[in-house]
Amino acid sequence: MKMKNAPSTILLLIGLFTAKSDASFPSSCTCFAHGYREEIVFESCDGAYITFGGSCSYDLMRTCTPDGLDNKPPFSVVVKAGYTTEFDNKQTFVSRVTINFENENVVMDTRGGFMVNGMIETTDYFGDNFNVTRVDRPEYSLIKFQTHFSLRVLIHIGARSHKIRVRIGRHYQRSLCGLCGNFNDETADDYQTADGENVTDLAYLDRQAASEEIAKSMLVQEHEQELCEPIVNRPSPHQMLEAMIDREKVFDIYGSCAKEEDEIEGNAQCNVTLENHPTKGSFANCSKDLDDDNKLKFVEACSAAYCAGKSHRAKERNVCYFIEALSRVCRENLKPVHNWCMPMKCPAQKGCSKWEQKYD
Ligand SMILES: *[C@@H]1O[C@H](CO)[C@@H](O)[C@H](O)[C@H]1NC(C)=O
Ligand SMILES: *[C@@H]1O[C@H](CO)[C@@H](O)[C@H](O)[C@H]1NC(C)=O
Ligand SMILES: *[C@@H]1O[C@H](CO)[C@@H](O)[C@H](O)[C@H]1NC(C)=O
Ligand SMILES: *[C@@H]1O[C@H](CO)[C@@H](O)[C@H](O)[C@H]1NC(C)=O
Description:
Pfam families: VWD (PF00094). The protein is α+β, with helices and mostly antiparallel strands. The protein has helices at residues 6-16, 204-217, 237-245, 247-254, 260-270, 284-288, 292-308, 312-332, and strands at residues 28-36, 39-43, 49-52, 57-63, 75-86, 89-101, 104-109, 114-116, 119-121, 125-126, 130-136, 141-147, 152-157, 164-169, 176-177, 348-349, 354-355.
């Protein structure tokens, strides 16, 4: 079973949002950013994830107060994202990291170069309070930056995903802002919308919208003039549905259904216009507006997904992803459908406002 197209990406991303349980507190804050297909995945110090596809400069980690405190000099780490299009696939990556602290400025490029205070350095750099070194390993190369106040930034160079790791000591707890989160040992509140909603509490599609809002709020002001796209165009829900029901792709992902009883049950779950469907005609008005051919393909693709689920729960969940995409289309067409999630026994909690996080 190949897993490489849209729905599997969604599943993967949902898996990525799985919260860490924090029994023991780490001695330092470690945060990651790396390009994954069309998006950059960020992991905060407290273990929350956010993904978005913008290509601008974003605050990765910085001190929230401009003056710093005691033994905590203020600093900022900014990532600049970029993307290339290869074989029709957009690849997002981190193109450079800029670090500012104590009147020093270091820029590290994921292609391998780095600059200290505007000067290109061709060898390792050793300053009074910080150094920048290159590390070559057979499998990969790194640039390593470290300061006397425990800030360490490591970038993979030349690699496709351009993984970035930022680390800072525990004395900076609760004084950090940016995409690395607030480092307060609380996973839920690292990514919050302007309304104070925790992104980890939202359902997949709402989470995407919230992630984009947060990405925009993390844009670095002085880079506003640079040529970049704050958010790479995401497919509209219509296009998502079309992608989901693309027959070849669906069979490529799920294979065709081997069990006849699964096919029958899949059809019964996926055809929202059936008289005895659990949603009891809620989709009727919306369904009238949809193209017959698309409706047929939707049922076929959705039931293939049902069939592919390895457990009963997984089968139900696969159907729920399809129905969720359908309900999104209905909402976009101004025929919103409410209360489909509970009757469908979708793997969600809190009255279907919170989806279960683990896919299996
Ligand atoms: C690099 O910087 C760190 C932090 O200031 C310091 O502990 C370390 O000894 C330095 N390494 C070298 C080789 O200068
Ligand atoms: C967000 O998460 C934090 C930490 O768990 C919690 O205190 C806060 O109430 C949450 N906010 C909302 C709106 O649920
Ligand atoms: C469908 O539309 C009609 C007319 O606008 C409305 O009366 C009815 O409640 C709608 N049905 C559903 C299930 O939303
Ligand atoms: C879904 O159910 C309706 C109503 O019974 C039926 O007309 C339609 O052909 C079904 N669609 C599929 C793809 O089975």
